[in-house]
Specification:
CATH architecture of chain C: 3-Layer(aba) Sandwich
Largest sheet of chain B: 4 strands, mixed
CATH superfamily of chain C: Response regulator
Radius of gyration of chain B: 11 Å
Largest interface: A-C, 59 and 51 residues
Shape of chain B: globular
Number of domains of chain B: 1
Strand content of chain B: 25-35%
Mean pLDDT of chain C: 90
Structural class of chain B: alpha/beta
Radius of gyration of chain C: 13 Å
Shape of chain C: globular
Chains: A alpha+beta (about 850), B alpha/beta (about 80), C alpha/beta (about 120)
Number of helices of chain B: 3
Oligomer: heterotrimer
Low-confidence stretches of chain C: none
Strand order of the largest sheet of chain B: 1-2-4-6
Number of domains of chain C: 1
Low-confidence stretches of chain B: none
Number of strands of chain C: 5
CATH architecture of chain B: 2-Layer Sandwich
CATH topology of chain C: Rossmann fold
Largest sheet of chain C: 5 strands, parallel
Helix content of chain C: 25-40%
Number of helices of chain C: 5
Number of strands of chain B: 6
Distance between the termini of chain B: 32 Å
CATH class of chain B: Alpha Beta
Order of helices and strands of chain B: EEEHEEHEH
Structural class of chain C: alpha/beta
Helix content of chain B: 25-40%
Strand order of the largest sheet of chain C: 2-1-3-4-5
Strand content of chain C: 15-25%
Chain lengths: ~850, ~80, ~120
């Protein structure tokens, strides 16, 4: 389960980050409903997930923040900057706790007082909006009591329909097996001016069963305003109806009407009349169960002379009911809902025998099973025995699974299935079912009232989803692993294509192979081009603007500056510069470190700055600029600069340099000492930058991203760090060379030239070999020696020198043989090899050999 | 002409557009005992039908076409004949 | 092989529930919201849905309605899992077609038993 903790922290950190960014925005730009909603959601997720672990203080704090956000988003508490800061403080605290959890050093008990204090402060800011809460509750209670007073579950609008309409509906519902749809269409009063013709639309509804139109005012003052209420019934399916009324969204609602609801609505309207009809004879016949007689009587009554069309319709419906088993059963459940309670508990049922035999372990399962069955029973009872109820199939499936096929085979209606359940549950169940009517009614009422809006909005979302696809900016959310996989494939493709020249060469050597060789070469150039394009296309996918990483920094700077009582302005430039996503993230840490250094050691306290004649507010400029194939990231501050002398002394004290070097090192070189391993200038380790990460670590991190770091500084004026990074982890042009029969590579952009010289051209200056090349002194290094390879057995006078530049000057590398330049995808060293800093990576050659690629900087520093 | 006003009867014929609504209403107001002959009525704009629903005039002839049942119901809806 | 679809916008929660219900005889599908759930469910034989209520884009209630309105998925049992513990929330869940309602955080044993029962793995023939 510690994996789960890992997932939780990972996900929650994302939530924290997103929430922080939004809070920053709220802080500077003010209230935004969207932003608040999202922050709320982030905290809600953290709270919910944290509940799975034993970290209550964290959960409570998140809860407090969530509650404050809730009151912010519904407007009962106004937003201000200090609330943002308070919430940010909470987020920081949670983040710190995550750090502890990750490192295993958490002390949850110690968290409690912090959580209590902070949560207390947060909750104190919440404006209690008790009036609204009360109002809302009493409103709801009223609705619920209203609902429970009516036994019928039909939508009230249906009840208001005339019996003739009801008749048409019932007849239609009996015929077709689909549920009926009732569309309540209330056109806007000004719809005529929009060119709408509601009644035409209504009368053209597909599979129309009935239309009922009612004036909605007492009198019509303006002929050109529409004041009508239209109710349409149709047996078409949901989509057809939605499509038909598509243009009239907002003016109509639709709800599905089950046959049971039709019957209960009918009964509500007709009960009085029918029970009294024929001096009660009609009703008596029905109660006696004499359906035929009852139907005949109904027909007769309906044809009477004084009967109104409505009454005639009522009779006709009653007739239909008597003639249909389905309808009779439905009427039964409306007139006698208590019938469902009769339970036939047979002591001999197999189930109870099973229960008698159950072992203690089974009780948990039995209990769960009974709970499930009881719940399904309640759901069944709310269906009014309508087998077309949307939830019936799933309930049947579950119950069949629990009770077994034999017990549920005959059950084709909800009532039958309910009986099957009741027979097999124990005798205590009836008590529950009697209580059920309250629950029965509320969910069903909610279903029918909820249905119009929600079904509409469900289809709206379904409709708008495709619309969104058409309109939204064309972006895709892609799993990063897929991109990485794609990159790997392309890498392999690059390598694979490289073997074609080899093959071509081999073909040349075969008789009659010249032609083949030519063809291979021709195709190679095509494949080469395509591969390069493919590669750069995929790499482009991974490019993100640096603002992606930079946007965290203003807050960081603000916080640190505040803690140190310094005034600092962070100016960011070139945030749109694009960079490989992986690379930019790996740079985040070194950049933060550099920023912290600037803030901690670079920028002086406001008073000191004043004394030095500078403005009290220090400036740090963070800029990103593309330069050829690279991106140059600069961090410049106008602080007190780095004192080269001081550095020199410290380096000497730490044994990094020797005494004589105190004199020989130039200012430039002295400054570079801060990159040396084991060097740290901070005498007091402040909690900000004192994580033990020195500049050498920064340089390593930058190197791992394939870049280099430079530093310049002037005492009293400021310091500048420059990071030069390859824009993409791309194809590198590598120059191959050989030492001791082994192939190595070096970045082609480091190579200045290749020269072959004779032994005599090499001179010694102070025991170090150098080469005079066109009036320039080029210090030489023998790669054999540097790589600790065996001494050469080569007697030849010729020496191959690879002249390279590492950004600080030209050097010469003595190697055995030159080879050509090739394109490779450089992969970093992993595992055991990862510790070897003088190699920056490996590449695969076309013939399967592995090329070790030299990291020039590192190599030269190992002397 | 879809709408033809006569002395005691106003005739609705074929397809009645929205502008017929105004004329129909004025005629019904000025002829409280007038009747409507909708024998050949095929279709009408809602505005026209709305006038009928609100004024509930007597019909001398109901539409021949079968799809007007709802209109009859609407004319008496809520106010038993 | 039974297929369970777990729908929740919190990765941690999905992981937790998956850890509880996954085994060699069950295949688990995951989705972050109702829309994704419906997309992933089409053409597959889902045997059980575990649905969170609060999700962006399409919440649990609307997902339930969509499932119940679908010809393909209509008969699939739905367990609704929510942070809300009031009766009205449970009622709402049932009114949109859920078959069972659980509160978060879910007890591992309870969920495990419930799922076995819902999948019909424990029958009383």
């Amino acid at each position: 389960m510690s994996d789960l903790l890992h997932v939780f922290i990972g996900e929650s950190r994302e939530n924290l980050e997103s929430a922080s960014l939004l809070l920053e925005k709220l802080h500077s730009d003010g209230y935004s409903q969207d932003a608040i909603d999202n922050v709320f959601r982030d905290l809600h997720t953290i709270k919910g997930s944290s509940d799975l672990f034993d970290i209550k203080p964290l959960t409570s704090l998140a809860h407090a923040a969530e509650d404050l956000l809730d009151s912010l988003r519904d407007g009962s508490t106004p937003l201000n900057e200090s609330l943002c800061d308070l919430l940010l403080e909470a987020l920081d605290q949670i983040s710190n706790w995550f750090d502890e959890l990750e490192s295993g050093s958490e002390n949850v008990e110690k968290w409690q007082p912090i959580s209590t204090e902070l949560a207390g402060r947060i909750r104190a800011c919440i404006h209690a909006d008790t009036d609204d809460a009360d109002g809302g509750e009493s409103e709801q209670a009223a609705q619920q009591s209203e609902a429970s007073s009516s036994v019928s579950a039909a939508p009230t609008s249906f009840l208001a329909l005339g019996s003739q309409t009801q008749l048409q509906c019932i007849e239609a519902a009996l015929e077709c097996e689909q549920p009926l749809w009732q569309v309540n269409y209330t056109p806007d009063f000004d719809c005529f001016f929009r060119g709408e013709d509601p009644l035409t639309v209504a009368t053209n509804t597909p599979e129309l069963i009935a239309i009922q139109v009612t004036p909605s005012k007492d009198a019509l003052n303006d002929v050109f305003q529409c004041h009508l209420g239209i109710v349409v019934h149709s047996s078409a399916d949901d989509t057809a109806i939605a499509n038909h009324f598509a243009y009239y969204e907002g003016q109509y609602q639709r709800e599905s009407i089950a046959l049971g609801q039709l019957v209960s609505a009918f009964w509500a309207a007709s009960e009085e009349y029918l029970v009294a009809a024929e001096q009660g004879e009609l009703w008596q016949a029905y109660l006696d169960g004499d359906m035929q007689h009852s139907a005949r009587l109904a027909e007769m009554v309906g044809m009477g002379e004084d009967v109104t069309p409505e009454e005639a319709a009522m009779c006709r419906i009653f007739q239909l009911i008597c003639q249909s088993d389905t309808l009779t059963a439905l009427l039964e459940s409306v007139t006698h809902p208590a019938d469902n309670d009769s339970v036939d508990v047979s002591a001999d049922t197999p189930l109870q025998q099973n229960q008698a035999n159950e072992t203690p372990e089974d009780t948990g399962v039995n209990q769960a099973r009974n709970e499930i069955l009881s719940q399904q029973l309640i759901i069944l009872q709310s269906m009014n025995n309508n087998a077309d109820s949307p939830v019936f199939p799933s309930v049947k499936r579950i119950v069949t699974g629990l009770l077994g096929q034999s017990h549920t085979q005959g059950a084709s209606t909800p009532n039958q299935l309910a009986n099957a359940i009741e027979q097999l549950l124990n005798a205590t169940t009836p008590v529950e079912t009697e209580d059920a009517p309250d629950e029965l009614v509320t969910p069903v009422v909610e279903e029918s009232t909820a249905a119009p809006e929600t079904t509409e909005t469900v289809s709206e979302t379904a409709e708008s989803a495709p619309k969104q696809e058409r309109q939204a900016p064309k972006t895709l959310k892609v799993n990063q692993e897929k991109i990485d996989y794609l990159m790997d494939l392309i890498g392999e493709l690059t390598v694979a294509k490289n073997s074609l020249p080899y093959l071509a060469k081999q073909a040349e050597d075969i008789q009659e192979g010249r032609k083949l060789s030519k063809q291979i070469k021709a195709h190679f150039s095509i494949v080469n081009r395509l591969t390069e394009e493919l590669q750069s296309a995929v790499l482009q996918i991974r490019m993100v603007p640096v603002s992606h990483v930079f946007q965290r920094y203003p807050r960081l700077v603000r916080e640190l500056a505040r803690k140190l009582n310094k005034k600092i302005d962070l100016v960011m430039q070139g945030e749109d510069t694009e960079f490989d996503k992986n690379l930019i993230e790996s740079l985040s840490e070194p950049l933060i470190h550099l920023l912290r250094n600037s803030i901690d050691h670079g920028i002086e306290a406001p008073s000191d700055r004043g004394v030095a004649g500078k403005s009290e507010t220090g400036t740090i400029v963070l800029s990103a600029m593309p330069q050829d194939d690279n991106v140059v990231i600069e961090i410049r501050d106008d602080g007190k600069g780095i004192d080269a002398e001081k550095i020199k002394m410290l380096a000497y004290q730490k044994g990094i340099i020797q005494e004589h070097q105190l004199d020989t090192l130039t200012e430039e070189e002295s400054l570079q000492l801060i990159f040396a391993a084991g060097f740290s200038t901070s005498e007091q380790v402040s909690d900000l930058s004192g994580r033990g990460v020195g500049m050498d670590a920064v340089r390593t991190m930058v190197a791992q991203a394939g870049g280099t770091i430079e530093m310049q500084s002037k005492v009293g004026e400021g310091t500048q760090f420059k990071l030069i990074l390859p824009q993409t982890m791309s194809v590198n042009r590598i120059m191959m060379f050989e030492v001791n029969h082994q192939m190595f590579g070096i970045g082609l952009d480091s190579v200045v030239e290749t020269v072959k010289v004779s032994q005599r051209d090499i001179e010694m200056i102070r025991n170090n070999p150098v080469l005079m090349l066109r009036e320039k002194i080029i210090p030489l290094h023998c790669l054999r020696t540097l790589l600790q390879l065996p001494v050469s057995d080569n007697e030849s006078d010729e020496v191959c020198v690879l002249v390279v530049n590492n950004g600080q000057g030209d050097f010469g590398l003595i190697i055995d043989k030159f080879h050509e330049g090739i394109d490779v995808i450089q992969k970093p060293l992993e595992g055991v090899m990862a510790g070897f800093n003088h190699f920056s990576g490996t590449a695969l050659l076309g013939d399967g050999r592995v090329l070790l690629i030299i990291n020039l900087q590192e190599l030269l520093s190992c002397r | 002409m879809p709408i033809v006003a006569k002395q005691k009867v106003i005739v609705l014929d074929g397809h009645c557009e929205i502008d017929a609504a105004e004329e129909l209403e004025q005629w019904l107001v000025s002829h409280p005992k007038g009747q409507v002959n909708a024998k050949k009525l095929v279709s009408a704009h809602t505005a026209v039908l709305q006038v009928l629903i609100y004024h509930r005039p007597a019909f001398s002839v109901w539409p021949e076409a079968g799809h007007w049942q709802w209109l009859r119901q609407a004319m008496t809806n809520g106010r038993e004949a | 092989m039974k297929t369970i679809m777990i729908v929740d916008d919190a990765t941690t929660v999905r992981c937790y529930h998956k850890a509880i219900v996954a085994n060699a005889t069950r295949h688990i599908e995951e989705a972050e919201n109702g829309i994704e759930a419906l997309e992933k469910a089409t053409g597959k034989d889902i045997d059980l849905f575990m649905v969170d209520v609060n999700m962006p884009k399409m919440d649990g209630y609307r997902l339930c309605q969509a499932i119940r309105a679908s010809d393909e998925l209509n008969a699939v049992p739905i367990i609704m899992i929510s942070t809300e513990s009031e009766t009205k929330d449970a009622n709402k869940a049932f009114s949109v077609g859920a078959n069972f309602y659980l509160n978060k955080p879910v007890d591992a044993n309870e969920l495990s038993t419930l799922v076995s029962l819902m999948l019909g793995e424990v029958s009383y023939e």
